[in-house]
Amino acid sequence: MNKKIRVGAVSYLNTKPFLHGIKHSDLINRIELIEDYPSKIAGMLLNDEIDVGLVPVAILPNMKQSYIITDYCIGAEQEVVSVALFSDVPMDRIETVLLDYQSRTSVNLVKILFKEYWKKEVVLQDAKEDFRTQIKGNVAGIVIGDRALEQRNISPYMYDLAANWIAFTGLPFVFAAWIANKPLGVDFEAAFNLAIADGLQHINEVVAEEHYASYDLKKYYTENISYELTANKRKGLELFLEKLAAL
């Protein structure tokens, strides 16, 4: 295929190992790489502005065709730390929840948790940029990505969405996967999977390059984020999509 394959990647810290592998492989010469926040990349995939992206799994029901093309994902088997409900007050005093505009999967996950696990009615409100300043009093907020790692140092109460999903279902959670909207060819998919896998072998280099102060990135990459798309994670993904359909 002479035309470059358009690849969309999330610009968060949790994607850096993937990007390291892609940018240090021959694959980089065969693709057009675009980086943005998750819901933006999701919209691009749905609109066929990219061919494959690391996208929120919540978009799968909206896709005409979908192909998970790697053995890797953004997942969690315990506390993920970068996807959480943040609040100034305990759960029983939360009245309104601001929904991060950068998210799709996490927004739907929190709706499921409120409905089925926490069994609490709250006002859900779509948020705009700079919404974190509004997280105060009885107003809580879903914050994802790098900003969530920073928000941990601000909000006295944090409800980790992955940890709560696992407590609720007994299954791990998949936030995002490498999903294509068309077949990309066996050779490309194999090379792409290999590049992603190689990036995960260079975690120490990624940590050294980032110089991040808000959280221990080595712990984040090796304990909080779980990158392998295992059979158990696929079960968790299937259950999430079932519950999403019932919302």
Describe the secondary structure blueprint for this structure:
Elements (H helix, E strand, L loop, with lengths): L4 E6 L5 H8 L7 E6 L1 H9 L5 E5 L10 E10 L6 E5 L8 E4 L5 H13 L5 E4 L12 E6 L1 H6 L5 E4 H9 L3 E8 L5 H14 L3 H8 L6 H8 L1 E3 L2 H15 L2
Parallel strand pairs: 1-2, 1-3, 6-7, 6-8
Antiparallel strand pairs: 3-10, 4-10, 4-11, 5-8, 5-9
Helix pairs in contact: 1-6, 3-5
Q: What is this structure, in a nutshell?
A:
The protein has helices at 16-23, 38-46, 105-117, 146-151, 161-169, 186-199, 203-210, 217-224, 231-245; strands at residues 5-10, 31-36, 52-56, 67-76, 83-87, 96-99, 123-126, 139-144, 157-160, 173-180, 226-228.
What is the strand content?
15-25%
Task: Enumerate the strands of the largest sheet in spatial order, edge to edge or round the barrel.
Answer: 2-1-3-10-4-11
CATH fold name of the largest domain? D-Maltodextrin-Binding Protein, domain 2
Compute the number of structural domains.
Answer: 2
Descriptive tags:
247 residues; alpha/beta; D-Maltodextrin-Binding Protein, domain 2; 2 domains; 6-stranded mixed β-sheet; 5-stranded mixed β-sheet; 9 helices; 36% helix
Explain what you see.
By secondary structure, the protein is α/β, with parallel strands linked by helices. The protein folds into 2 domains: 5-75 and 172-245, D-Maltodextrin-Binding Protein, domain 2 (3-Layer(aba) Sandwich), CATH 3.40.190.10; 83-169, 3-Layer(aba) Sandwich (D-Maltodextrin-Binding Protein, domain 2). It has helices at 16-23, 38-46, 105-117, 146-151, 161-169, 186-199, 203-210, 217-224, 231-245, and strands spanning 5-10, 31-36, 52-56, 67-76, 83-87, 96-99, 123-126, 139-144, 157-160, 173-180, 226-228. The strands form 2 sheets. A 6-stranded mixed β-sheet has the order 2-1-3-10-4-11. The chain has a 5-stranded mixed β-sheet with strand order 7-6-8-5-9. Helix 3 (105-117) links the parallel strand 6 (96-99) and strand 7. Helix 1 (16-23) crosses helix 6. It is globular and about 55 Å long.
